[in-house]
Write a structure and sequence with these properties.
Elements lengths: L4 H8 L9 H26 L7 H4 L7 H9 L3 H11 L3 H7 L11 H4 L7 H15 L14 E5 L3 H12 L3 E5 L8 H4 L8 H13 L3 E3 L10 H7 L2 E4 L5 E2 L12 E3 H13 L4 H4 L9 E5 L3 H12 L4 E5 L11 H9 L3 E3 L2 E7 L6 E12 L5 E5 L5 E4 L2 E4 L3 E2 L3 H4 L27 E3 L2 H4 L4 H30 L1
Parallel strand pairs: 1-2, 1-4, 2-3, 4-16, 6-14, 7-8, 7-14, 8-9
Antiparallel strand pairs: 5-15, 10-11, 11-12, 11-13
Helix pairs in contact: 2-4, 2-8, 4-5, 5-8, 6-8, 9-19, 13-15, 15-16
Length: about 475
């Protein structure tokens, strides 16, 4: 590093060799950039030693050994830091990028409480895992001794992928079924590439494929096979479909052209990022370029939509939310990012109609005020009479959250029990549904939640499925005897 001409140029102002080749120049820059990143990671990690109270780890759903791998990072022991981080998470570089750390580990950092700013835990986690991939420290998925048993996983999102990895490592044959043409679920199609680069997701999936996990893409349960068909093929089933049914708005004109669903908008954008042909971009129906965009909602999906619209070159982007900033469910860090990028937030505002005949031209809204707390404890929004006004809109994106689909009907399995919210009912001691040998994990059980919780559920259900398969094998041995 001491002989790096670019480092000497930056540090001392010495002239940079003119005859240095382009490749050598690139290597010099990459080396100094890496050195800078290492220094920043070690600097941030060293701040953790000032704490001694691991609230960060207890507020991480995975209970990552955060103080320990921060200490190793501060000591420059990056490989050991990565290996420790990898013990509790199947996707540390993904969580480092997309976890709402301000609501979890960093939000509970003792140094943050003291007013000195949280340790940037997510950035360090991302850095050490990216370094592990680059240096070849990420081990291939090695299957355990074959058990002769097969598992079917429905849904290739974070919960399903986590379970698939652990069960394959235990020696089971694993098949993953997903409705999309690429695995990854919302990691692939729901989260924008500027937050989670798609090559990061694809290399994780490729590692699973290289480990012998079989992926069945563009496979819909209920169309290509019923749940009973899969039960006949496999010794145990995991349902990890997530929740994909978008909540809607009941207002005049909601069916007009130009009023679209958030997931349709995000999937189109991500497919375009892969280089796919996207009809919704070709005809402009799912493209924000040159348009006045209004996004309705206050969660993380709404933030993904407004920031995507900005990047697509929208003429203006407004986000309507019926509560105030303090009561919105999305990450405050994401709101700040969106504001910096030019998004206008219109707080305490709700749509009451969509204007236009052949195509939406505007949104009629009413101002809201916060009344008494509702059943959740949050102050319920109520309309402020006489405060209606209209705002221009060429594209309206509905980002109001998601509910479960009617899986018993879709899967052709009416004995699959659901709760009053439509989520799958499970025995929480075993994570098994009402159907023998069929387990469930992730959002389809807990409702729309965070990727890190899906990974946690996928990790937890693995033990229950493995025990079930082991008991089933022993019962078969007794019958054979």
């Amino acid at each position: 590093m001491a002989d790096n001409p670019m480092l000497k140029f930056v540090a001392t102002g010495q002239s940079y060799p003119e005859k240095r080749s382009p490749d050598d120049r690139a290597d010099d820059f990459q080396e100094i950039s890496r050195s800078f990143l290492i220094d920043k990671a070690e600097e941030q990690a060293s701040r953790c030693s000032q704490c001694g109270v691991p609230y960060c780890a207890t507020h991480c759903p995975l209970h990552n050994h955060i103080p320990d791998w921060l200490r190793l990072t501060a000591e420059g022991r990056l490989r050991e830091a990565y290996e420790l981080s990898n013990l509790t998470s199947t996707m540390p570089e993904i969580c480092g990028r997309i976890c709402p750390q301000d609501r979890l580990c960093e939000g509970n950092c003792v140094i943050e409480f003291s007013g000195h700013g949280a340790v940037t835990i997510g950035s360090v986690e991302k850095f050490i895992t990216d370094t592990a991939w680059k240096e070849g420290w990420v081990e291939p998925l090695v299957p355990g001794a074959p058990t002769g048993q097969s598992v079917g996983v429905i849904g290739a999102g974070p919960a399903g992928l986590t379970t698939a990895e652990y069960l394959r490592a235990a020696g089971h044959e694993v098949h993953v079924y997903d409705r999309h043409d690429r695995a990854g679920g919302l990691l692939t199609y729901g989260i924008p590439g500027f937050k989670l680069e798609k090559d990061i997701v694809m290399r994780r999936i490729q590692r699973l494929k290289d480990g012998g996990i079989v992926f069945h893409d563009s496979f819909e349960i209920g169309r290509d096979a019923s749940l009973e068909d899969l039960r006949a093929r496999h010794g145990a089933i995991l349902i990890a479909t997530g929740v994909y049914k978008p909540r809607d708005i009941k207002a005049p004109g909601v069916g007009a052209k130009g009023v679209v669903k958030a997931l349709d908008f995000l999937i189109a954008s991500n497919k375009a990022g892969f280089g796919d042909a996207v009809p919704g971009h070709e005809d402009g129906s799912l493209l924000a370029t040159g348009k006045h965009v209004v996004v309705i909602g206050g969660g993380d999906t709404a933030m993904d939509c407004v920031r995507t619209a900005i990047r697509q070159g929208a003429k203006s982007v407004k986000c309507l939310y019926r509560r105030d900033r303090e009561n919105m469910p999305g990450s405050q860090r994401e709101v700040a990012n969106a504001e910096e990028e030019g998004v206008e937030f219109v707080w305490l505002t709700a749509p009451i109609a969509f204007e236009g005949t052949d195509h939406v031209t505007g949104v009629k809204v009413t101002k809201m005020r916060l009344g008494a707390p509702d059943a959740s404890g949050r102050r319920a929004p109520e309309a402020d009479p006489g405060s209606e006004f209209s705002m221009e809109a060429d594209l309206v994106i509905k980002a109001l959250g998601y509910d479960p689909e009617e899986l018993p009907k879709l899967f052709g399995s009416e004995d699959l029990s659901v709760t009053r919210w439509g989520t799958l009912r499970v025995d929480h001691k075993t994570m098994m549904t009402s159907v023998d040998g069929v387990f469930a994990a992730g959002d389809i059980v807990r409702g729309a939640s965070l990727v890190v919780w899906a990974i946690r559920d996928g990790r937890d259900v693995t033990d229950h499925m493995h025990k079930y398969l082991r008991a089933k094998a022993k019962a078969g041995e007794r019958v054979a005897a």
